[in-house]
Design a protein that fits this description.
The protein is mainly alpha-helical. Helices cover 66% and strands 3% of the residues. The strands form two sheets. The protein has a two-stranded parallel sheet. Helix 3 runs antiparallel to helix 5, helix 5 crosses helix 8 and helix 9 crosses helix 11.
């Protein structure tokens, strides 16, 4: 029981980690295909990520010690499923207490969410659910048959054609159950109103700030690791690797510079682009206003830390000011809007506006 709980926590941890990694592109796709980010659909996609990893953790982990494994064969008789059911109902007492029948039920339930996700998230029907269930189950069973693709000298878990059948059945049942979800909430197709502008709220601005924070963090991590690898394996300067000064500088300079370039060229940070926001309306020249917009965002605030000392303290203070201004300024335009004199609008407003001379329907 403790092992199963541990495997569940592992699946949740990996799923959440991948969810954080994919969050910014997910937000951007949601705003372009559905016009907004819905909490329910976001949680459903996160559940799908956790489920994907749960499948692998429950079917392959824990990996045993190679010295302790016992080689097993394959069960290729499809009628073994029928015989297991017959034996369970023929045995005295509750048939659901029979291990063989419980295993069959568990196999169906394990793949039921897959079929549900196929219909609700992908908008596909029973044939796709059948193919997805059979394909994923076959991959798992083949992984077991080959001893995790040669990691072990032989299979230590049975390849069971009955598992293929019941897993596939579970996916089909899940796809059928998903019919209770309203059609308007199913599928990945773009909504017809996705391009229409929507109100600019503090929550939306906060989401943009979160996307900026995550994007900056991943860019910073990538730059720092890249410099460390370059110092270790190309320059072969172990002292510089241990010192960490160059990697720390790169971790700040690279993402700050990328944010600066993006904002100077297009006037929008990564978070602004993701949630379809735009700063506009300043009386200042556009390049100067954009520079100030960058200075009030995570790129400029982080760059202020480079000299260290009092500048690092100033950066921390500005970060707190930025958070406060998110909740105290109109539409959450925050520190970037205050410094640049700009206000926030939906970036789709220009796209959605009718062309001069166009007839209104």
């Amino acid at each position: 029981m403790e092992d199963q709980v541990l495997l569940g926590f592992i699946a949740i941890a990996i799923g959440v980690a991948f969810g954080i990694l994919l969050f910014v592109p997910f937000v951007a796709i949601s705003y372009r295909r559905r016009g907004r980010l819905g909490l329910g659909r976001t949680l459903l996609w996160l559940s799908a990520l956790i489920y994907f990893w749960a499948i692998w953790t429950y079917t392959l982990l824990p990996l045993p010690d190679p010295d302790t494994i016992r080689c097993v064969g394959a069960i290729t008789d499809p009628m073994s499923v029928v015989r297991d059911v017959q034996k369970a109902f023929a045995a005295p007492g509750n048939p659901l207490r029979q291990p063989a029948l419980l295993q069959l039920v568990f196999n169906v339930l394990l793949f039921l969410p897959l079929g549900f996700f196929v219909r609700v998230l992908a908008g596909r029907g029973i044939l796709v659910a059948f193919a997805a269930g059979f394909g994923l189950s076959l991959l798992i069973e083949t992984t077991q048959l080959t001893g995790v693709w040669g990691v072990y000298p032989c299979a230590y878990r049975f390849f069971d054609v009955g598992d293929l059948m019941t897993n596939t059945l579970g996916a089909v049942v899940g796809c059928t159950v998903a019919l209770v979800v309203p059609r308007s909430l199913r599928g990945a197709e773009a909504r017809p109103d996705a391009d229409l502008p929507r109100p600019v709220t503090r929550g939306r601005r906060a989401l943009a700030m979160l996307c900026d924070f995550l994007a900056y963090g991943f860019l910073s991590m990538g730059a720092g690791v890249t410099v460390q690898v370059w110092l270790e394996f190309v320059v072969k300067d172990r002292a510089a690797v241990l010192d960490g000064t160059l990697s720390s500088a790169a971790a700040t300079i690279v993402p700050s510079a990328l944010f600066l370039v993006l904002i100077l060229i297009g006037g929008r940070s990564i978070g602004d682009i993701a949630v379809q926001l735009r700063y506009t309306g300043s009386r200042l020249p556009a390049p100067f206003a954009r520079l100030l917009r960058w200075a009030g965002g995570i790129g400029g605030i982080s760059a202020l830390q480079l000299p260290g000392g009092i500048f690092g303290f100033a950066a921390a203070v500005l970060f707190l000011v930025a958070v406060v201004l998110l909740f105290t300024t109109r539409s959450g335009r925050g520190l970037p809007g205050v410094l640049s004199g700009q206000h926030l609008v939906d970036a789709r407003a220009d796209v959605a506006a009718p062309r001069p001379g166009a007839r209104r329907m």
